[in-house]
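Morning F.,

Quick status update on the modeling queue. The single chain you submitted on Monday has been processed. Sequence for confirmation:
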Amino acid sequence: MANRETAIWINLAVQDLERSRLFFAGLGFGFNPKFSDAKAICLVLNERAFVMLLREEFFAGFTKRQTCDTATHTETMLAFSCGSREEVDAVADLALTIGGSPGGEPQDHGFMYSRSFYDPDGHHWEVFWMAEGGPE
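Structure tokens below.
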């Protein structure tokens, strides 16, 4: 498996598909209509990374466990990179403006800078910039 390109498909339960679509479209993401319908929408992060936003009741059909209450628990933290510190701030500020809520204080480690937010369904997202080569 180490020698082949692997795509990642993340599945998240959401309460309101249209609200989720508007939020992520507002951040500049697109959707793949081939994998979208009344129960789910396919958010495209890039050509190999996708997030399936599934209505809660549809999502529940794929697991034997109880769905996480993201108002009180963190199920995961999803992170995506930006090209600069300024882009991190722009994306995080925009997320807060269009319906997200703060996920914590900015983290500045010199070689890496990040901010986090919760989307309207309470999923924890982090946007970060990292200098080429990482820490010195």
